[in-house]
Predict the 3D structure of the following.
Amino acid sequence: MGVPLPGVSATVAAGVELGGGLLLLLGLLTPVAGVLVAAVMAGAWWFAHRGAGVLASDGGGELVAVIGLLALVLAAVGPGRLSLDALLGRGRAVSPAGAPAARPAADARPRS
């Protein structure tokens, strides 16, 4: 397939797919995991599915495209309130309705 450093590339891809998928599932380090998974899926499309059409049944890249796009959406939107990131207090605050909650303003008084 012409993948550079195939042994290293396979190890990195397997690690990102397994570790990144687990992180996305748990909602932990979601932006980082989402971008890494999307990058690996872009590489999979480039080296294995480019020029083979769209449908996976024909060797196309529909599955890697869907996985990559969903990983980017999760990275952009965030994991939500039922995640380890939310439990640990990282990420954006989300109101019960799902909209970003207003953050309390910092104390505007000058410090002396």
